[in-house]
Write a structure and sequence with these properties.
161 residues; mainly beta; Immunoglobulin-like; 2 domains; 5-stranded mixed sheet; 15 strands; 0% helix
Length: 161
């Protein structure tokens, strides 16, 4: 089952015998899913797991379906616009990468090979990162490559002083 980021899905199921009502439960997963009645909502791209249960009735026992993985895709590719602060050679800092369509906890690599970047939080439009910038790196503009779970990539430039 697939959805597009920032939408909802109305869940349906078929088959089975009996007159018992069908209910759904989900794990939040990386898409931050929730269910009210038969409507699945999600706040970002990612994956969640939905399980349908058909209640028993006087003739048939309760029936639980196998869990279904729901993949929420981006409507377009993720885009990064800027790094929240300037960075300095030889320092570590926490900052942000601002953009749209972020999902999961992507990997971030700098064009300066020994610079280390770790994503600490993803809100969908802002990646909180902690980065250690290598001493003696030439001042100027460098690139961060953000790689998401499904192989999508985006680039953002940053200025190192």
């Amino acid at each position: 089952m697939n959805g597009i980021d920032h939408k909802t899905l109305t869940l349906t199921s078929g088959g089975g015998s009996g007159t018992g009502p069908v209910t759904y439960v989900t794990t939040p997963g990386s898409a931050n899913c929730s269910i009210v009645g038969d409507v699945l909502s999600y706040s970002r791209v990612g994956v969640c797991v939905v399980t349908a249960t058909k209640a028993g009735d006087p003739t048939y026992n309760l029936m639980r379906a196998l869990p279904a993985h729901v993949v929420i895709n981006v409507a377009g590719s993720p885009r990064a616009s800027h790094v929240g602060t300037a960075v300095w050679s030889g320092r570590s800092l926490s900052t942000t990468i601002v953009g749209t369509g972020f999902y999961g906890i992507p990997k971030v690599a700098s064009s300066v090979r020994s610079t280390k970047v770790v994503v600490t939080h993803d809100s969908g439009n802002v990646l909180a990162i902690h980065a250690s910038f290598v001493k003696n790196t030439q001042s100027g503009v460098h690139t961060l490559t953000i790689t998401f779970a499904h192989g999508q990539r985006t680039l953002v430039l940053y200025k190192q002083s």
